[in-house]
Amino acid sequence: MNYQWYPGHMTKAKRRMQEDIGLVDLVIELIDARIPVSSRNPEIDNLGKNKARLVLLNKSDLADEKHNRLWMDVFKEKGFHVLLVNSKNGQGIKAIQGIVKEACREKIERDRRRGIINRPIRAMVVGIPNVGKSTFINSFAGKACTKTGNKPGVTKGKQWIRLNKDLELLDTPGILWPKFEDQTVGLRLAMIGSIKDEIIDATELSLRIIEFLHEHYPLALNERYGILDFDDFNEALRMICLNRRCFLKGEELHIARAAGIVCDDFRNGRLGRITIDRNP
Ligand code: G4P
What we know:
Largest sheet: 8 strands, mixed
Structural class: alpha/beta
Strand content: 5-15%
Distance between the termini: 30 Å
Radius of gyration: 21 Å
Bound molecules: guanosine-5',3'-tetraphosphate
């Protein structure tokens, strides 16, 4: 589910987001715990002003535990409610119900003062492509929930998932557009595999990954590929090529294949739990 974004895409995504956000009390924003800055579009703060906000650091299983804790604090300081989750295995999902109530306490109070009781909180999930929105909705809503659509008072055509008497979720997630304008952001999105590989050459990308690991996780390359000393990152890649026995005909090195292996291992956590964006 990768997108090539261009201005037309962004305008459409933004218009859709403005429409949908008007219908909810709470915005559940998914960001990738490995790149909590680069996987965010700060425009959501403007679009979601006056809404209760919950930030989920998703794919926290792939991110460095120490940095997960640091990033939680950063988002809390900004005034968001925040949780670490793994949508794939459901870790952290149970804690959401409680925190939703906390995040929406003001709205619940306001309703009560006006004599409105039992009106469920309405929420929508937003995030950039590939951050895990569909996986999260499946995991959070589960199979037990009933879909409710076209109810009076609900915009025609919108489907809501009723999680329980207190909470309804818009069943289509809001897609935020990544901020490609920033070169670093583009590179980091490519590193975690959230933008098409065609945008950046895989060999170049693997060299940047090796460079990053060498600087921040110096043991990772040795542990996975048994390489320790190298003069430059090209040499490191050649050594990985040998270690993984990536050959063309004869003894010629198949560098592109080794590059693919490095990118894949990095993205799937086989080089360890890694956080790329560091707390400023
Ligand atoms: P989207 O709707 O935001 O575009 O994202 P989607 O749910 O399609 O998830 C994108 C990929 O991220 C999927 O992997 C999904 O399994 C994976 N994913 C989502 N949440 C988590 C998480 O918390 N931890 C980990 N480790 N992975 C997560 P995929 O390779 O595209 O599909 P699949 O092979 O897993 O089915």
